């Protein structure tokens, strides 16, 4: 079974969470920014096979160059024109993370290239900055932000996950390991009220 570690835990600079998923295929989901990600990966597992990006905001990709150089790995993400992505993924594609296959869900609104990664088999969702604990959701006042698109993405996410979802790894804040679908529903309700 895969082990998931947030290598950005305890970092005091502005960074996203960065989840190192160990298993058959060691993958870093988002690289974070402003800390020595290479040192933390080496201390945790010593190896890395790939990086998967939920999106390309600076706080999620700031450490990417050093990680790619240190481990000689390729990067999977939605936007191949971003300059960060070696392998483009599209809505509905699969990507192997740890010991499980994850489905790519294109979820724009916070940023055009935003994706969530969901595995029913693992009961896990990497939600990036689409949704956070307690019904929070990503900003839409930045470039490429669109509140209507974000609301549609929340609806899409709710229709894509099922009762197997037990853990939601988010881009900022704490991991949700109790009734994650409820947190997504709260985010949808809040976003609807602000539409």
Termini separation: 41 Å
| Major sheet description | 6 strands, mixed
Secondary structure category: alpha/beta
Mean pLDDT across residues: 96
- Helical segment tally? 5
> Into which percentage range does the β-strand content fall?
15-25%
Q: Helix-strand pattern, N to C?
A: EEEHEHHEEEEEEHEH
CATH superfamily: Ribonuclease Z/Hydroxyacylglutathione hydrolase-like
The value of Rg in angstroms is 15 Å
Largest beta sheet: strand ordering: 1-2-3-4-5-6
CATH topology: Metallo-beta-lactamase, Chain A
Integer count of domains: 1
The general outline is: globular
Low-confidence stretches are none
Number of strands: 11
CATH class: Alpha Beta
Q: How much helix is in the residues?
A: 10-25%
What CATH architecture would you give? 4-Layer Sandwich
GO molecular function, one term: metal ion binding
Protein name: Beta-lactamase domain protein
Organism: Natronomonas moolapensis (strain DSM 18674 / CECT 7526 / JCM 14361 / 8.8.11)
Pfam family, one: Lactamase_B
Give structural notes.
With 195 residues, the chain is α/β, with parallel strands linked by helices. It has one domain (3-193): Metallo-beta-lactamase, Chain A, CATH 3.60.15. Helix content is 25%, strand content 23%. The chain is built from 5 helices and 11 strands. Strands 1-2-3-4-5-6 form a 6-stranded mixed beta sheet, with no helix packed on it. It is globular and about 45 Å long. It starts with a strand and ends with a helix. The model has no long low-confidence stretch (mean pLDDT 96).
């Amino acid at each position: 079974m895969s082990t998931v570690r947030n290598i950005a835990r305890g970092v005091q600079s502005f960074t996203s969470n960065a989840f190192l998923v160990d298993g058959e295929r060691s993958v870093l989901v988002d690289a974070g920014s402003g800390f020595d990600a290479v040192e933390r990966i080496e201390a945790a597992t010593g190896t890395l096979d790939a990086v998967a990006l939920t999106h390309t905001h600076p706080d999620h990709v700031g450490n990417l160059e050093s990680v790619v150089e240190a481990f000689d790995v390729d990067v999977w993400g939605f936007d191949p024109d971003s300059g960060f992505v070696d392998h483009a993924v599209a809505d509905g594609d699969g990507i192997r993370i740890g010991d499980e296959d994850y489905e790519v869900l294109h979820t724009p609104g916070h940023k055009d290239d935003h994706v969530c990664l969901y595995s029913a088999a693992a009961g896990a969702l990497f939600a990036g900055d689409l949704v956070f604990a307690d019904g929070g959701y990503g900003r839409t006042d930045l470039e490429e932000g669109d509140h209507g698109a974000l609301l549609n993405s929340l609806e899409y996410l709710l229709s894509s996950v099922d009762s197997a979802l037990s853990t939601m790894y988010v881009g900022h804040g704490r991991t949700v390991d109790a009734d994650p679908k409820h947190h997504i529903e709260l985010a949808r309700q809040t976003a609807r009220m602000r539409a």
